[in-house]
Amino acid sequence: MNATISLSRRSFIIGVASTAGGLSLGFNVPFIKPALAEGAETAPEINAWVVIRPDDTVVIRIARSEMGQGTLTGLAQLVAEELNCDWSKVTTEYPSPAQNLARDRVWGNFSTGGSRGIRESHEYVRIGGAVAREMLIAAAAAEWGVPASECTAWMGMVTHAASDRATFYGQLAAAAARMTPPANVTLKDPKDWTIAGKPLPRLDTADKLNGSQVYGVDLKLPNMVNAAIRACPYFGGKVASFDAAAVAAMPGVRTVVQVDETAVAVVADTWWRAKTALDALPVVWDEGPNRQVTSASIAAMLEEGLGANDAFIGAKQGDAGAALSAAGRTVTATYAFPYQNHATMEPMNATALYTPERCEVWVPTQNGEASLAAAAEAAGLPVQQCEVHKIHLGGGFGRRGNFQDYVRQAVSIAKQVPGTPVKLMWSREEDMLHGAYHPTTRCRLTGALDADGNLTALHMRISGQSILAAVRPQGMQNGMDPVVFQGLVLSGTEGTLGYTVDNLLVDHAMRNPPIPPGFWRGVNLNQNALYVECFMDELAHAAGVDPLAFRRKLMAKHPKHLAVLEAVAERIGWDTPPAAGVHRGLAQIMGFGSYVAAAAEVSVTDGQLKIHRIVAATDPGHVVNPAQVERQVEGSFVYGLSACIYGECTVNGGRMEQENFDSYEVLRMAEMPEVETIIVPSGGFWGGVGEPTIAVAAPAVLNAIFAATGKRIRTLPLKNHDLS
Amino acid sequence: MARLIINGTPRDIEVDPDTPLLWVIREQIGLTGTKYGCGVAACGACTIHIDGVATRSCVLPVSAVEPDQQITTIEGLSPDSSHPVQQAWLALDVPQCGYCQAGMIMAAAGLLMQNPNPADEDINAEITNICRCGTYNRVRAAIKLAAKAGEATQRG
């Protein structure tokens, strides 16, 4: 069949996307590496991002991980937009971390966290699509002997109008792959987008409706065995001894192994049998140095930090100390934020196959390259002899990024049964006891109000745990953890304070309890928004000013912060009274590059809280898929309100007390409020979506609770408070 | 030895009678759409149907299932994702990570069998599955959409 068809027969082609006004970029295009040397994909790779099969299927390579946040679809939209392909023919695949390494990291960063999936890679993936498009055009032009400049590409087809010719991409792919990539490409102006920017359905829904989506826990490999693990529940403790013989004869048991200093595992034919034997396995723990640590001792440690002299300064303007000392009227409050667990629905897991020459790992991971590094280290093999196969995640929320403990464990077990694939899955209890916990911090805020009720000085003293100090010390700045100040700093593009306070000091007394902290969806923005936004409400109340009006006075120089706040206030009807018994609260913050705000309507009846309605607004600069943004925002309130109402891991005897969802409750359907999402992309920057709105959930609701009850809740979770 | 009828097919399985049905389904039958989430019947990820009734399989010993009872898993809800609940889920693009969704869909399908037109309060009472990504509002909307589709089918 001749794939070249006449233009006159193509009534469906309506035009070519204008690139006028687009962004011209001159740079070295990093897409000239040879095609993948191995793998199932035999269709031509135009470049690292785009493979086109003869049947016109476009395979778009996605370097970031999909864990429900929709990045897979969004990144594919960006590539497809520039490629001018037919969206209905798009499919995706993950390149592997080892391939990335072998090709000088042609796909860039695999890490999927910090709401960075799209905002950090939008440019190079669009370039990938644009370069592939130009190579397809060049191939068609060469075949037809016409100038490339006379050809256009649209809907998966290259057209030469003057000679009335057109060819589908699938027919051009092999020739296009041999073309020299252009040195420059012009990216489209987002206003001209037809695929990106649209609320397209996700590409990964169908398999999630019938049980066919394979998660890490579902993996099946020939001769695979299953492992159940128990690590010492006491932080800092170790395995002292265990009696493998006591369970060796139990049904299905293959072996009992010590995984590392801290953990033992049972390997069996099925996971259930492995777990059953593990439950029966006598283990003696060396409980380590932290048996005296409790939530109370940690609280005392942090309380001391609230008044300590040593502190890292995150934001400073004027002289807050002097202004507060001289002030006629000050307001002080102390807030506290507990440990929380990610509690992904899919427990931690990894499958490993080890031989003395090679180690392969299959794992749901937010950072395939970190998984590869962990696998190589645990295997004791050069990284070139290791491979990681990424699998869709049953939730990540930060737990599956930096921390590759489950990969190291799986490889350690696999080394003890070489040549046999081992699937390690944690029980929920293991998951709850060995988290990378949303760290605990406290904050004492002191503000000065002048006679007119204006905020003239503010000191925020944060005391508490640093994530970076524990997990990424190379990110520290002269001993300071900059992440602690998320949303509170005075400059930069990540998250600035939305208020102008003439005398401002935000500082941090680092107090690191012996509990492993981690990046938890929203990270420190969650704590900081609670502190600053509830305290703004306290100040407004003390000044006798409406909370919105009070904030407005401080936000004149922060128009984007103010715009989202005004948007939620207007939508919830701030200027009109709510229904009888219903009360409102507001909050705003900037984080992960986006400006967000929320307004909540609640009622409290006989001490029972009901959250009726949430209005949320986000300005992420650009929006790649508004439907996905809406879902991320809506979902973020489930995460944020779970934390607000229930989330708390308490420490007793040097270990966590909560072991499952019966003691670590989370928000369920009955409590889920309506969420209306206002998306107001103002352009000119790229902000994240998955995390920032979590941070405004709790303060908006707590401020509404104050309006309803006069009770100022300053410690989470709400379940510990009597609202009656 | 246990005899189970799973998705219409009788299966004879060599199994310890205390083994929870979830693990028989996942590890011995090999149907992995039904998920483990908590092991204490708190999250609903393991929801299946037994004789049409939504049931959490992670705490149900296989010995508690009678040989003539019909066990339906997500894989057997329909041959081609055509069940009204699956269709509503598709129409509203409900899943995010998707891990809890098989349990959600089975719980929703079970609810609609008992109550073809559930009110919000019925949904709140019956759908207590945990979703950490936050699909609850679309789950609710999809249940209502499926109910409407069922109504239309009955009328039509």
Counting DSSP E segments of at least 2 residues, the number of strands of chain A comes to 30
Sheet with most strands: strand arrangement of chain B: 2-1-5-3-4
Supply Rg of chain A. 28 Å
Please give the CATH architecture of the largest domain in chain A: 2-Layer Sandwich
Shape of chain B: globular
Supply the number of helical segments of chain B: 5
CATH architecture of the largest domain in chain B: Roll
Binned strand content of chain B: 5-15%
CATH topology of the largest domain in chain B: Ubiquitin-like (UB roll)
The stretches of 5 or more residues of chain A where confidence is low (pLDDT under 50) are 1-40
Termini gap of chain A: 77 Å
Mean pLDDT, all residues of chain B: 96
Structural class of chain A: alpha+beta
As a percent range, the share of strand residues of chain A is 15-25%
Number of helices of chain A: 17
- Assembly state (oligomeric): heterodimer
What kind of sheet is the major sheet of chain A?
7 strands, mixed
CATH class of the largest domain in chain A, please?
Alpha Beta
Structure write-up:
Chain A is globular, with a radius of gyration of 28 Å. Chain A is 27% helix and 24% strand. Chain A has 724 residues and is of the alpha+beta class. With 156 residues, chain B is of the alpha+beta class. Chain B folds into two domains: 2-76, Beta-grasp domain (Ubiquitin-like (UB roll)); 84-155, DNA polymerase, domain 1 (Orthogonal Bundle), CATH 1.10.150.120. In chain B, helix 2 (84-91) packs across helix 5 (136-155) and helix 3 packs parallel to helix 5 (136-155). The chains are: A alpha+beta (724), B alpha+beta (156). The interface between A and B is large, with 61 and 57 residues.
